Write the structure tokens for this entry.
Amino acid sequence: MRKSDGRERLLTAGLKVLHSRGFNASGVQDITDAAGVPKGSFYNHFESKEAFGAEVVARFWEEGARRALPLLSDETRLPLDRLKAYFAAKAAANLASRFELGCMMGNFAAELSGQSRLVRDRLAALFAGWTRALATVVREAQEAGEVPRDLPAETLAGFIIDAWEGAVLRGKVERDPAAFERFERIVFSKILA
Amino acid sequence: MRKSDGRERLLTAGLKVLHSRGFNASGVQDITDAAGVPKGSFYNHFESKEAFGAEVVARFWEEGARRALPLLSDETRLPLDRLKAYFAAKAAANLASRFELGCMMGNFAAELSGQSRLVRDRLAALFAGWTRALATVVREAQEAGEVPRDLPAETLAGFIIDAWEGAVLRGKVERDPAAFERFERIVFSKILA
């Protein structure tokens, strides 16, 4: 096995382990077992479990972005329609996992912000990038006259992401779609309206 | 030391430990050390660390409710003013802890929903009670003509709580009040308006 293969296997398997069990409930051995690599090889690839966690949550974001961000830039649709499609796809992904996993960014924000400056800084950068991506489309919706211009697009986008993270958390607790339904209803009838 | 004293010391000290470090990063010994009781005595008072976690998060809610809920029932103020005062007080509490701790209910929702059915059920009940308490005041605001009646008070209250939890998470990551400021702005200019 080449060194890069082991690293890749650790990231792929570790993402699943840390997403489902959380960071502190997972040992390095859980990650190496899931990846099918010797426990001792972990530190050939990553300086620490903390550094691994920061890489894994960035990969979580990249994978989600690869799937969902194209919906935001689909210029065959009006901006507001794109935003609806984007959150509908994300809600469907949460339903598909029976609301159990939640968002790894939110999970790590809750569990690790106080424990790891490295993870917290990575999360801050990821949330900022997500907010910019969403704000671009909110701004287009404002320019198209679909959304009022009384609040800055960045403010609206930041709030909508926070409300989304809260809905995902509530979904984890209640294991039903109610939080996602009211998110969709209120975002598109009150906030972007 | 009477048995009830040890139990009370464990709950008081353990709430602080679990709030700042999270559940899985804290051992029973961290809790007994903080409480100043012998490690072995923990299981005289609680069946498991999990059962302790469920009691602690219920106590977190009760303590917060004792401080903040009176603001919601202050009948010298109009309902919308009470809601503003309530969230302003909660934002001030987050500022006072430099946004580090977050909400234990949100933290446990993220960390433990998949790990503990006991904690998840407790959280579901606490979130439902919180939503009912908030919805009562939203309904009063609707009856007073301060808030439109186009959406049910329970839907609005549920969404506002989710958005709050998301803002608290973002505050933990960014360690600044931006998420609280946009929460206040959007809730009171778009959602309850």
Notes: The two ends of chain B are 55 Å apart (CA to CA). Chain B has a mean pLDDT of 96.
